[in-house]
């Protein structure tokens, strides 16, 4: 039973991989867009930071839920 609890807590953090891919996609798109139109680089950077913050928030929520489920199920 203990292994299942730990496996469930670990599965709650799978969203971290998706958030990492999302952050990479945001900055990859920023580089492509700035190379096509350098005159709006400052505006695009603001949008990229917004996208980064939203993706990072999802990662932090997933990590928090993983920690909560681990501590709840293991009675730490």
From TrEMBL:
State the source organism's domain of life: Eukaryota
What's the family? Belongs to the ATPase C chain family.
Q: Name one GO cellular component term.
A: mitochondrial membrane
Q: What is this protein called?
A: ATP synthase subunit 9, mitochondrial
Recorded topology in the membrane: Multi-pass membrane protein
Membrane-spanning intervals of the chain: 46-73
Predominant localisation class: mitochondrion
Q: Which organism is it from?
A: Kalanchoe fedtschenkoi
Please give one Gene Ontology molecular function term for this protein. ATP binding
Show the Pfam families listed in the entry.
ATP-synt_C
Q: Which residues form the V-ATPase proteolipid subunit C-like domain?
A: 7-68
Subunit field text: F-type ATPases have 2 components, CF(1) - the catalytic core - and CF(0) - the membrane proton channel. CF(1) has five subunits: alpha(3), beta(3), gamma(1), delta(1), epsilon(1). CF(0) has three main subunits: a, b and c.
Quote the subcellular location field of this record: Mitochondrion membrane
UniProt entry keywords in alphabetical sequence: ATP-binding, CF(0), Hydrogen ion transport, Ion transport, Lipid-binding, Membrane, Mitochondrion, Nucleotide-binding, Transmembrane, Transmembrane helix, Transport
Q: What does this protein do?
A: This protein is one of the chains of the nonenzymatic membrane component (F0) of mitochondrial ATPase.
């Amino acid at each position: 039973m203990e292994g299942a609890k730990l496996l469930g807590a670990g599965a709650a953090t799978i969203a971290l991989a998706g958030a990492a891919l999302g952050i990479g996609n945001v900055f990859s798109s920023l580089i492509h867009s700035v190379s096509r139109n350098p005159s709006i680089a400052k505006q695009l950077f603001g949008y990229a930071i917004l996208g980064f913050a939203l993706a990072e928030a999802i990662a932090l929520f997933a990590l928090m839920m993983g920690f909560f489920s681990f501590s709840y199920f293991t009675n730490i």
